Amino acid sequence: MDKLISNDVKTEELVLNMGPQHPSTHGVLRLVVELEGELIVNVKPYIGYLHRCFEKHCEAMTYPQVVPYTDRMDYLASMSNNLGYAIAVERLMGIEVPERVEYIRVIMAELQRIASHLVALGTYGVDIGAFTPFLYCFIAREKILNLFEMTCGARLLYNYIWVGGLSHDIHPDFVRLTKEFIEYFKPKIVELNELLSFNKIFIERTANVGILPLETAVNYGVTGPVLRASGLKWDLRKNDPYSIYHKFDFDIPVGDGRMGTVGDSWDRYFVRVREMEESLKIIEQAIDQIPDGDVKAAIPRRIKPPKGTIYSRTENPKGELGYFIISDGSVNPFRVKVRAPSFVNLAVIGEMSKGHLVADLIAILGSLDIVLGEIDR
Amino acid sequence: MKTPGEIFEILKEKFGDKITGIETELPVEPVISVDPLAIKEVCEFLRDNDDLRFDTLMSLAGVDDANGEKTKDEDGYDIIKGGTLSVYYHLDSIQKGHKVTLKVSVEREKPEVESVESVWRAADWHEREAFDMYGIVFLNHPDLRRILMPEDWQGHPLRKDYKNPEYYQGMKVPY
C-alpha cells in the first residue's frame, strides 16, 4: 500500500503564509511556513511592519526626551524599558540616585514584570484554546495598572522613570494598596495553576512541543524566561546586578522538564508563573523598607554626558534589554541602539518548530512571548 | 574572568597587526579595534579559547561615525564623503562571566565586513539590521536582505547624511 502511494502520487512542499494579520501572531508579524504535508520544514519570519524609526528619532532628541519613546517599544513593560534607559545614561554620566528612588524603581519594575507575564500567560491560554484564564489574568493585571495610574496618571505608557530620578513620588496610599495587592494575588497564582497550568489538555498541547536545547539557545543569544526554561540559571538581576537587586533574597526559576522535556513550551510557560511568585517576594521585601528622600534630587539640570560609549543591560520581563549609547559630548545622543529581547528570541523560531505540526507552531510562537513593538522599533 | 586589557594582550599576541588598538580613555568601557576582514577568525578564537569562552553575542550595532568631509546640498541636507562606518560587537561569556567590546571600521564608500553569523547565529538578524540601516555589507552572510524596511526601499536610513525620499511607491513620504 505504501509503495503504491509513493509511486503514483506526486507530492510537493506547500508554502503557507501566516499573517501579517492573524489572531495568533500577537501583532503584525508574517510567518512564511514551508510544509510537507502537515509537518513544518522551515519557518521564516518577516518583520518590520511596525517600524517607527525609534533609533533615528533618538538622534534628534535630547537625552530626557528619549524616555517616552522607550515606553513604546515593549508596550506591555514600559516601566522596565524606562528603567533600562535611565540606568544606561546614569552609568554614562556617573550619577548616583537616592536610595528611595532605587526602591521605588525596583517595586515598579517587579510589578511590571507580573503584569507583563500575566498578559503572556493569559494570551497563551487563548492561543491554545482556553479563553477563561485570560479573563482571570486581566483582572489581576488591572489591579497593577490601577497602582501605576495612581502613581503617574498613565496606565500603559508611563514615562515615569527618568534619568536620575522619577517623574512623581508615590501616592500616600501606594504602600497600603500594594500590600493589599500582594495578599490578593498570592491565591490567584494557585488558582491559575489549577485552571490552566496543570490542566490535562493544556499539558498535552504544550509538553514536548518546541523543545529548545540549551546550546542552541545560547548560540542564538536567547535570553529571559525562554533561556531559563532551557535549564540555565541566568538572570541579569543576579548575574550582572544593577540597581539594588543584590539586597533582596529571591530565586531564579528554571525549566525542569516536569511534564516532558527540559526546554519545551510548557517549561517556558511555567517559568513565567514561578517568576511571578519571585517578583512578589521582592516586592514584599522592598515595600516595607522604602526610605525617605526626594525622588527628584538627583535629576541633573542639564543632561550632557561625556564623550564615550556604553552598553548597559537589564532584565526585562522578556529577556535582556540592552541599550548601546554613543555620546559625542552634546545634548543629543549620537547613536542609540536597542537590543530588544523579543527581536533576538523570535529569530530562533525556525529552529524550534522544525518537524512539528502547523497547529503546534501557534503553541511555540505563543510560548516565546514576543511583542512586535520592540521587534520592529 | 579577564579584563578587556588582558583580553587585548592575548589577542595581540595571537593575531598581531590584525588587532589595531584599544581605546581605554573612554569613560565607561574599553573598545578593542579589529581589522574588518579578520573579525571572523578573531571571534572564532574568542569563542573557542579555553580561557575566554565568549559563548554569546549580546548585541551587534552598526554606527555611522560621520567623520568624513561634510558639505551641504541645496536643500540643507548633509552630504558626507569619505570617513568610516563602524560595527560594534558586544560579547559576553556566560561560563567565565566577562564581557568585551570589539569594533571594526570600514570605509564609507566600500563598507565590507566579514560576517560572524557562522560563529554565533545571534548575529544573523543583527547583521541584517546593520545592512538595512547603514548599508554595511557582511561578506559570506547566507541571507543578507533588508529586515525592518520594505525590500524595495532606497537608501540606508540611519546614515547621518540620509535624505528622505519624496515618494515611496507613489505615496508622498513626509505626509
Structural description of this entry:
The complex is a heterodimer of chains A (377) and B (175). With 377 residues, chain A is α+β, with helices and mostly antiparallel strands. Chain A has a single domain, classed as Cytochrome-c3 Hydrogenase, chain B (Orthogonal Bundle), CATH 1.10.645.10. Chain A has helices spanning 2-8, 54-60, 63-71, 78-93, 99-128, 132-152, 174-197, 200-206, 214-219, 225-229, 236-239, 265-287, 341-346, 349-353, 358-368, 372-376; strands at 14-18, 30-36, 39-46, 161-162, 165-166, 308-316, 319-327, 335-339. Chain A has a three-stranded antiparallel sheet with strand order 1-2-3. In chain A, strands 6-7-8 form a three-stranded antiparallel sheet. Chain A has a two-stranded antiparallel sheet with strand order 4-5. In chain A, helix 7 runs antiparallel to helix 12. The longest helix of chain A is centred in the N-terminal third of the chain and has 30 residues, at 99-128. The model of chain A has no long low-confidence stretch (mean pLDDT 88). A five-stranded mixed sheet of chain B has the order 1-2-7-6-3. In chain B, strands 4-5 form a two-stranded antiparallel sheet. In chain B, strands 8-9 form a two-stranded parallel ribbon. Chain B has 175 residues and is an alpha+beta fold. Chain B has three helices and eleven strands; from the N terminus they run H-E-E-H-E-E-E-E-E-E-H-E-E-E. The termini of chain B are far apart. Chain B has a domain at 4-109: Beta Polymerase, domain 2 (2-Layer Sandwich). Chain B has helices at 4-15, 39-48, 123-134, and strands at 19-23, 31-34, 56-64, 69-72, 78-81, 84-92, 99-107, 112-114, 137-139, 167-168, 171-172. Chain B is globular. In chain B, 19% of the residues lie in helices and 31% in strands. Classes of the chains: A alpha+beta (377), B alpha+beta (175). Chain A binds chain B through residues 47-48, 51, 53, 55-56, 91-92, 94, 216, 218-221, 232, 234, 239, 306-311, 313, 320, 322, 324, 326, 335, 337, 339, 343-344, 347, 376-377, and chain B through 26-29, 31, 55-59, 61, 63-64, 88, 90, 94, 97, 101, 120-122, 124-125, 133, 146-150, 157-158.
